[in-house]
Amino acid sequence: MPSYHVDNDLNFVKDPPTNKDLSDIANAYQKKYFPGPSPELETEITPHPQFGGTAAYAPTENEIFIAKGLSAFEKCTRIALLHEMIHANLHVRGLDGTRSMSTVPSSRLK
Q: How many domains does the chain have?
């Protein structure tokens, strides 16, 4: 359940997601959008991203990083998470650039 705080103008403001929230969303997206083999992903909201953008998938760590600044915007965070999950799922299927799409049997692309 989301948590809220009261700002200086006495408005209720939804707090950004926690790492657990992000993990729960990733698990739901995995079930909904990516049937078949699943990567064992970690997710982390980080205040000091080691990457040059708002989100990144690190295949060596099998981790998705989301910049803390982005996490204040729920829809953008969800889009970035889903985008990085596409990279992760292509990676686990060997379709992340290490193999040409033309060498993959069409049955694996359905």
A: 1
